[in-house]
Amino acid sequence: MARNPFTALRRRFNGAAQKIPREIGRVAENHFKEGFTKGGGQTDAGKWQQVKRREPGTYAYKYAKSSSRSRGILIGSGSGRLKRSITVTKATFKQVRLATVGNEVNRYAKVHNEGLRSGGSATGGASGSGFKMTRREFMGPSKELDRKVKQAIIKGLSGVFR
Question: Which is more confident, 45 or 101?
Answer without folding.
Answer: 101
